[in-house]
């Protein structure tokens, strides 16, 4: 059976991606029905091979098709054609695909399976040039699939008994918009080494978590890649985000305290004491829709025309079909997720949208003024798209303007005196009011995107800065990765002196400007790599707190090492990627020189992005 599979395997190296560690109880799986996508394709294959046989598999109704003769003949014909080798891509372990590998590893452990039970022979698929055959064998429609859990990126994850590959007993599948507890019909469309990707065709039996009546973005939810959770109650969304944090620490912070025995797991009790018991409930966003102060719709133009042809097309003087097609308006919006039929879209063009960008007219998570900006820019685009030679991203950034010009010079906090506008020039200076402070920054540079939750996060950070028993002793704050000074400035009133560091010269200029605007005299900002800050610090470590708010990839070891040597009394680590946060915190505690002197006080999620899978995590560490 499937001898060709093993022939190809010699050319393709299947590496051991997953090491299994944990013991979990197994969950029962409902066996799904698998049907070939195209009966014609199977018939064609039967014609091309006299010896072909159809065998039943351990998954009910799954048919394995013996292809060796058909494929062997093809191989003889193409004997000089080189087989393509499959090389698995390497991912940063804290990126969504890196985390998916950990999630798959856990799923296998829970079901008593090995990597070799589910791995796919990708070389076999990519070397098969017969599309009908590939569709019939690998890209099947599967019914009665139980969605078992959520991946960290909000996709559902399932384990299907049966596989078209020799000696494999199951397949792992990701299902966008599948919710744990759902029983669904899916169409598999892509085979990766350890999992296949699918589209959700139908929800046969909904999960108790699913409530499609909650969907606010009736037009696009289920097709747009922006939101994943609109059909889940907000309370459940918050629980899911807490679960993401729990998983992150379980995946990235469970190695032994002893650096010599790196592969050993931390004992369950120790893990519970150090990490799990510190994770608190996720704090909700006051606004669950209309909250995003920045949106970035984009469009692709996948052709390039000569200037002459472009001019002709603009004048309407081109005649050929290709040229007409080339000048069809590109979609303007956000990335497409899948080809679902589970939602009945009022506008069928949404479901049938071709290409990688979904045409969007409105986005319900944007603030009202950003939504207005989207409409305005879209109308402009409808008139101007022919002038673009290539794709582009349009920035929509909320801005605050003062009705009374004089107010501009003052710290404004009366909402009645301000109007919101939406700017698109990435170089324009914009203003945001946060917690009674005024911030100016460049529209295209980093600034937090949900103003409604910022006062809650700032309050949490402030409460966790070092508190001296002796009030005569000064307190200090170091803000690494300070951006345009959000935490430095808002926390400055609680400490005697703040020093911030930031790699972007432009952001440092604005941090300095913002401290002046807010009449804050105790902040100093320096431009440079985060570790540069340790050259500048002369404050006593016992009276100093350090805030870290790095980009998604987290901190590097050089920085963490110096942080440990500096040995501050408190560390508040804010992160939009809890996986890199868990990795860094674990490295700091177990591998840095003074890490053993610290303990985690709390790990708390803040929901900066309702309706999506994202969560911001704040981890507070104290020197004991
Ligand atoms: C997530 S943002 C946080 C900014 C700020 N704390 C805020 O909330 O507005 C991360 C910031 O780190 C800066 N950054 C990135 N790499 C850095 C490095 N190696 N050293 C210092 N700053 C860095 C970025 O420019 C960005 O402003």
From TrEMBL:
Tell me, what does this protein do in biology? Catalyzes the formation of 5-methyl-uridine at position 54 (m5U54) in all tRNA. May also have a role in tRNA stabilization or maturation.
Assigned keywords, A-Z = Methyltransferase, S-adenosyl-L-methionine, Transferase, tRNA processing
Q: Which GO terms describe its biological process?
A: methylation; RNA modification; tRNA processing
Q: Which organism is it from?
A: Hanseniaspora osmophila
Residues bound to S-adenosyl-L-methionine are 448, 481, 502, 549
What the entry lists under Pfam families is as follows: TRAM, tRNA_U5-meth_tr
Stretches assigned to the TRAM domain: 136-202
Q: What is this protein called?
A: tRNA (uracil(54)-C(5))-methyltransferase
Does the record carry Heme as a key word?
Answer: no
Task: Output the lineage of the source organism.
Answer: Eukaryota, Fungi, Dikarya, Ascomycota, Saccharomycotina
| Superkingdom, natural source | Eukaryota
- Which top class of enzyme applies to this chain? transferase
């Amino acid at each position: 059976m499937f001898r060709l599979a093993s022939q190809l395997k010699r050319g393709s190296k299947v590496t051991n991606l997953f090491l299994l560690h944990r013991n979990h109880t197994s969950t029962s799986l409902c066996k799904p029905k698998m049907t070939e996508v195209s009966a014609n394709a199977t018939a064609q294959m039967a014609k091309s091979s006299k010896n072909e046989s159809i065998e039943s598999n351990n998954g009910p109704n799954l048919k394995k098709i013996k292809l060796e003769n058909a494929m062997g003949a093809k191989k003889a014909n193409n004997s000089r054609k080189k087989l393509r080798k499959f090389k698995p891509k390497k991912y940063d372990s804290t990126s969504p695909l890196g985390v998916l590998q950990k999630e798959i590893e856990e799923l296998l452990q829970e079901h008593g399976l090995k990597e070799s039970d589910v791995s796919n022979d990708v070389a076999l698929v990519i070397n098969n040039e017969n599309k009908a055959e590939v569709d019939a064998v690998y890209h099947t429609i599967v019914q009665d699939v139980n969605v078992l859990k959520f991946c960290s990126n909000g996709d559902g994850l399932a384990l299907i008994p049966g596989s078209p590959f020799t000696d494999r007993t199951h397949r792992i599948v990701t299902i966008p918009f599948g919710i744990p507890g759902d029983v669904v019909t899916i169409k598999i469309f892509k085979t990766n080494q350890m999992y296949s990707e699918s589209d959700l065709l139908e929800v046969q039996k909904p999960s108790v978590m699913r409530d499609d009546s909650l969907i606010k973005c009736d037009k696009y939810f289920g097709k747009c890649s922006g939101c994943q959770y609109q059909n889940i109650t907000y309370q459940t969304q918050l629980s899911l985000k807490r679960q993401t944090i729990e998983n992150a620490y379980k995946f990235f912070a469970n190695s032994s305290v002893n650096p010599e025995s790196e592969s050993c797991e931390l004992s369950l009790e120790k893990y519970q004491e150090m990490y799990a018991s510190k994770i608190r409930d996720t704090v909700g966003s006051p606004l669950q829709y209309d909250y995003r102060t920045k949106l970035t719709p984009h469009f692709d133009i996948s052709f390039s025309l000569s200037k002459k042809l472009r001019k002709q097309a603009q004048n309407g003087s081109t005649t050929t079909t290709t040229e007409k097609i080339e000048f069809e308006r590109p979609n303007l919006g956000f990335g497409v997720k899948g080809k679902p039929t589970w939602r009945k879209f009022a506008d069928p063009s949404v479901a049938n949208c071709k290409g990688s960008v979904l045409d969007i007219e409105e986005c319900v998570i944007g603030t009202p003024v950003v939504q207005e900006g989207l409409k305005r820019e879209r109308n402009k685009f409808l008139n101007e798209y022919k002038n673009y030679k290539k794709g582009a991203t349009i920035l929509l950034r909320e801005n605050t303007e003062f009705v009374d010009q004089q107010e501009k010079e003052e710290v404004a906090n009366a909402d009645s005196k301000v109007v919101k506008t939406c700017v698109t020039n990435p170089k324009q200076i914009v203003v945001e009011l946060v917690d009674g402070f005024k911030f100016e920054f460049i529209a295209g540079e980093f600034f937090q995107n949900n103003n409604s939750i910022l006062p809650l996060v700032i309050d949490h950070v402030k409460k966790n800065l070092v508190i001296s028993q002796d009030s005569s002793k000064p307190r200090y704050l170091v803000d690494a990765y300070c951006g345009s000074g959000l935490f430095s400035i808002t926390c400055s009133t609680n400490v005697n002196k703040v020093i911030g560091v930031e790699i972007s010269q432009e952001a440092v200029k604005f941090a300095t400007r913002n401290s002046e605007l807010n009449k804050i005299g105790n902040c100093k900002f320096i431009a440079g790599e985060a570790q540069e800050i340790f050259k500048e610090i002369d404050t006593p470590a016992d009276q100093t707190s350090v805030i870290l708010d790095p980009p998604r990839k987290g901190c590097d070891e050089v920085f963490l090492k110096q942080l440990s040597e500096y040995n501050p009394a408190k560390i508040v680590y804010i992160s939009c990627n809890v996986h890199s946060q868990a990795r860094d915190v674990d490295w700091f505690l177990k591998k840095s020189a003074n890490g053993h002197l610290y303990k985690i006080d709390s790990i708390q999620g803040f929901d900066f992005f309702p309706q999506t899978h994202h969560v911001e995590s704040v981890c507070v560490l104290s020197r004991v």
